[in-house]
Amino acid sequence: MHTNATSATEGGASKMPEQAPEHSPEQAPEQARFERQLDQGIPIESADWMPAAYRKTLIRQISQHAHSEIVGMLPEGNWLTRAPTLERKSILLAKVQDEAGHGLYLYSAAETLGVTRDAMTLDLLARRAKYSSIFNYPTLSWADIGAIGWLVDGAAIINQIPLCHCSYGPYARAMVRICKEESFHQRQGFAIMTVLARGTREQQEMAQDALNRWWWPVLMMFGPPDHESTNSDQSMRWGIKLHSNDELRQRMVDQTVPQAQFLGLSIPDEQLAWNEARGRYDYGEIDWDEFRRVVNGDGPCNEERLAARQRAWDEGAWVREALKAHAQKQATAVAAA
Ligand code: FAQ
Prior knowledge:
Elements: H1 28-40, H2 52-71, H3 73-77, H4 86-111, H5 117-125, H6 142-160, H7 169-197, H8 201-220, H9 232-237, H10 245-263, E1 273-275, E2 280-282, H11 288-295, H12 302-315, H13 317-336
Antiparallel strand pairs: 1-2
Helix pairs in contact: 2-4, 4-7, 6-7, 6-8, 6-10
């Protein structure tokens, strides 16, 4: 079993390439080439020289993104055995499996930066790495499955379409397929909400209750307000982030309000109003204390989510052992041939 407890982002991961400090005179040509690639929109590839801080930021963001996809299977997984029909169950099963695939593409993209998947997982389990705040909320009714697809996948698309054009090639390419699949996920969520919103009074109430509980946490998914976003400036200079947290959050509001109106549901925000001058919606204050609490481990389901990931890690130890033993056996056979 892999027990390396060093941090992936701190450079402790076993395969992290050695690099001299940034801007050393010997690396000026590489630095210049890197800057030129960014300016010309030429993707940075894993074999290219890159500043150590760029590599570290990518590992942080991509690994956290991968963890989010995997932890994100848990709230919906809760409803696989409770889906109302066989058709709904098979659709949900396919969606949850897609999220597993997204996690795998993203772990693979991060691995091209020289970090191991084991090191990333151990960072998550040791709470050194984050995952999206949204997955620390419970799924209390079937309508929550609709709300997750409609709103959480909807937010994910808004955040991730720009990432298809980010500066790091393997991340950008992984995002293309992920976004296509998220688009199906969003539609299936909206389809669930449509059925409920056109259903009995009780179903309409379920749909409204789900929207009430998910709306604000979904807006928090985009990260802290721009003036508190510690990574944005640098990540935007590097072309890792193409739009600010607040800009993407605003797009989410503008896109979702007409959809809620179509469903006959009300957004739980008394300050929500169309601003003619801006051509966008104004919306109310987000509870950033709640965001910070959830990100720092004190959300409704943080303990449960990490316990599930820890269990999967422990129970998967024999698979990792078996894979290693098989690889060793093959290497020995090749050496002997
Ligand atoms: N939750 O300086 P910034 C999905 C942290 S996938 C937790 O603005 P940055 C698919 C942030 O890490 C959803 N932590 O950070 C799906 C940083 O802390 P650090 C995940 C958050 O990186 C659907 C600190 O706050 N998507 O939904 C959050 O420039 C349905 C300061 O923030 C991605 O990961 C948060 N919400 O911008 C799956 C997309 N927000 O690391 C299953 C890729 C911020 O310095 C079911 N990631 N923090 O210690 C990104 O676009 C960016 O990383 C942001 C944050 C926009 C999330």
